[in-house]
């Protein structure tokens, strides 16, 4: 026996407190002991390099063994080892004084709020062990091996050991309620979780169980695209390939390494939960780093590793920590830089990823002023504009709905920035942006604009509703109108239906049409307007369209959002009847007899009435589809119209 003594701590009974205060996280003892073993191996390499140790250092290795009979778990390393003096100093004094400090700091506080419990160190082994033994031999010439034992009370024993190999073995005799740590599968799982990327082979049952390579610690220039993809697959198996990635690598004014990936977004992803793994010196700390990553980048995946993130503080303290704020800014800036670089160097790839990254970028612009400034010029929108190139533009959205491949194959890509849009259309409609939010339901309107050479932007992602309001603030003098809200003058022709057709009443054709529809539809909230839509082929343009003024629509959307309902189609809307369409012209002739004779019950007038309804139904259908009731009425009326028409055809 070399010595028997009392550990110099001031708090009586530190161990029950350690056990209690860290109750939920017992498993991290293994992370702490393996980290110490890795440190010990690094240290022996350092002294060897410095010429202070001339023997072979051998292949670094950490071996974990379990003995179910003895109920022991041992972690052995071939690192620097400790002399008796060092054991006394580092274990009895250093380790336990920091234990005491930790306990004092967190006594009575909920440990759940603390992100990492990092640096708990050696004494965390007492969370699971009833006795801890250190068997160690220092690298120092002439030193003899020692064994230190402690049963969880402040008393320890220090004696000679028969050990001949340099290094340290920590043997824990587990407490009865901690015997799960005798299961190799449990140990393997813990090593995979916490120590997978530590740069020393960790052996269990003769097999190396950790990956060791931590790509984020390597220089970006030494990694290939496949290396990044392989690492992503390793971290997130069975997931789609990521779109692009950012390698973070700085050591001033803080140390930060990491690789962040933009994943392909899946609809059910919870964007409020971070998926980035936090490491400290390659040791896993936490699955969540919501406090460190800017909110808008939370859906990113990957790894960040920094020794400058305080880990033994509460989550709220972390949020306000100055270094953490700086790190968040740095990450946002790096992500912005990477996006700009891609926009500049590989527009095609940028565009193909836009469907997914666009959401991040817009969310970022909405939330972070600095980020907005950085990326505002690279926010793009799909457009109906087709650049005149030799090869024809390829449709973006394929029938199968897989926009990706088609875009990447497209020689000229129908995407634009708002600035480019405004510049291109300055002559035709200055400070005016036409957009659509749903390609399918607004197809008629998009087509109308397209035919007249008016460019329409697709603002159809879920974030765009908010983003449009944001754009309106950014471009205060620009008016944003959805294609179905009102029609630009340039889409209309001077109304040819302005000439008087009824000598008795002095009514114009246009007025007659309006009257006809008003009588037929008989809904005071539907405002009927007659216009002549410009078209090279009147048959091809719609006979009527429903318009929803921008202001009205937004009010409706907003109140629906506040009541958390889906917006109902408002009763108040405009039915624009296209006076140039042959159907509408026929309708006037058809009804003329009835109106002129003041006999609204004549078969012609009745048919005209039915057809007005039908035209209105079709216009509504193009805008919103029908509910069950509307659908039934529509089918009934269609059948009636067809019956009447066939009757007429048969009798003539
Ligand atoms: N396996 C080991 N080999 C050699 N020395 C060790 C080993 N384990 C612990 N030590 C020594 O004991 C000291 C105290 O360890 P402890 O884990 O409590 O704290 P730490 O590693 O210094 O810091 P941290 O609190 O961040 O873990 C270490 O600094 C080291 O000098």
UniProtKB/TrEMBL annotation:
GO terms for molecular function: ATP binding; ATP hydrolysis activity; ATP-dependent protein folding chaperone; unfolded protein binding. PANTHER family: HEAT SHOCK PROTEIN 90 FAMILY MEMBER. The lineage of its organism: Bacteria, Bacillati, Cyanobacteriota, Cyanophyceae, Chroococcidiopsidales. ATP binds at residues 32, 36, 77, 82, 168, 315. SUPFAM superfamilies: ATPase domain of HSP90 chaperone/DNA topoisomerase II/histidine kinase, HSP90 C-terminal domain, Ribosomal protein S5 domain 2-like. This is Molecular chaperone Hsp90. PROSITE patterns: HSP90. Belongs to the heat shock protein 90 family. Keywords: ATP-binding, Chaperone, Cytoplasm, Nucleotide-binding. InterPro entries: HATPase_C_sf (IPR036890), HATPase_dom (IPR003594), Heat_shock_protein_90_CS (IPR019805), HSP90_C (IPR037196), Hsp90_fam (IPR001404), Hsp90_N (IPR020575), Ribosomal_Su5_D2-typ_SF (IPR020568). It comes from the Bacteria. SMART domains: HATPase_c (SM00387). It comes from Aliterella atlantica CENA595. Residues 25-178 form the Histidine kinase/HSP90-like ATPase domain. It holds the Pfam family HATPase_c_3.
């Amino acid at each position: 026996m070399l010595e028997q003594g009392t550990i110099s701590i001031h708090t009586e009974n530190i161990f029950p407190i350690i056990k209690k205060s860290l109750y939920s996280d017992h498993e991290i003892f293994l992370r702490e002991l393996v980290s110490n073993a890795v440190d010990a191996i690094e240290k022996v390499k350092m002294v060897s390099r410095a010429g202070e140790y001339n023997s072979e250092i051998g292949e670094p290795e950490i071996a974990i063994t379990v003995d179910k009979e003895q109920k022991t778990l041992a972690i052995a390393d071939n690192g620097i080892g400790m002399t008796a003096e060092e054991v006394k100093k580092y274990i009895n004094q250093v380790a336990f004084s920091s234990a005491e400090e930790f306990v004092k700091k967190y006594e009575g506080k909920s440990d759940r709020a603390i992100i990492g419990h990092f640096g708990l160190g050696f004494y965390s082994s007492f969370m699971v062990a009833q006795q801890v033994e250190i068997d160690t031999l220092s690298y120092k010439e002439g030193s003899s091996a020692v064994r230190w034992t402690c049963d969880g009370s402040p008393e320890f024993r220090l004696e000679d050991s028969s050990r001949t190999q340099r290094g340290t073995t920590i043997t824990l005799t587990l407490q009865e309620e901690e015997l799960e740590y005798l299961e190799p599968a449990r140990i393997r799982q813990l090593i995979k979780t916490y120590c997978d990327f530590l740069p020393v082979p960790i052996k269990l049952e003769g097999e190396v169980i950790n990956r060791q390579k931590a790509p984020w610690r390597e220089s970006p220039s030494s990694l290939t695209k496949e290396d990044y993809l392989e690492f992503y697959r390793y971290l997130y198996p069975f997931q789609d390939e990521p779109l692009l990635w950012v390698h973070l690598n700085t050591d001033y004014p803080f140390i930060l390494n990491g690789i962040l990936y933009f994943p392909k977004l899946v609809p059910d992803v919870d964007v409020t939960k971070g998926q980035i793994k936090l490491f400290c010196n390659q040791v896993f700390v936490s699955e969540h780093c919501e406090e460190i990553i800017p909110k808008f980048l939370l859906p990113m995946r990957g790894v960040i590793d920094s020794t400058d993130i305080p880990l033994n503080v509460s989550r709220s303290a972390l949020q306000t920590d100055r270094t953490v704020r700086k790190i968040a800014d740095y990450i946002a800036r790096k992500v912005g830089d990477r996006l700009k670089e891609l926009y500049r160097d590989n527009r095609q790839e940028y565009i193909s990823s836009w469907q997914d990254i666009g959401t991040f970028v817009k969310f970022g612009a909405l939330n972070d002023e600095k980020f907005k400034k950085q990326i505002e010029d690279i926010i793009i929108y799909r457009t109906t504009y087709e650049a005149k190139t030799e090869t024809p533009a390829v449709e973006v959205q394929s029938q199968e709905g897989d926009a990706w491949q088609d875009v990447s194959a497209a020689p000229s890509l129908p995407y634009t920035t708002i600035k480019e849009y405004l510049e291109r259309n300055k002559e035709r409609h200055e400070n005016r942006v036409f957009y659509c939010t749903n390609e399918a339901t607004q197809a008629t309107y998009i087509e109308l604009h397209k035919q007249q050479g008016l460019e329409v932007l697709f603002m159809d992602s879920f974030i765009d509703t908010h983003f449009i309001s944001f754009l309106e603030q950014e471009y205060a003098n620009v008016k944003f109108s959805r294609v179905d809200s009102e029609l630009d003058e340039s889409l209309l022709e001077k109304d040819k239906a302005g000439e008087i057709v009824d000598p008795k009443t002095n009514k114009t054709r246009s007025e007659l049409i309006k009257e006809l529809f008003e009588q037929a539809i008989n809904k005071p909230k539907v405002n009927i307007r007659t216009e002549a839509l410009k078209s090279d082929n009147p048959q091809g343009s719609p006979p009527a369209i429903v318009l929803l003024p921008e202001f009205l629509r937004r009010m409706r959307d907003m109140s629906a959002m506040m009541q958390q309902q889906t917006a109902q189609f408002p009763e108040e809307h405009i039915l624009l009847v296209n006076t140039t369409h042959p159907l509408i012209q026929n309708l006037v002739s058809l009804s003329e007899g009835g109106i002129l004779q003041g006999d609204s019950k004549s078969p012609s007038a009745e048919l005209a009435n039915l057809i007005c309804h039908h035209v209105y139904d079709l216009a509504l259908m193009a805008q919103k589809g029908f509910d069950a009731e509307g659908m039934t009425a529509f089918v009934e009326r269609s059948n009636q119209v067809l019956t009447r028409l066939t009757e007429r055809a048969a009798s003539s």
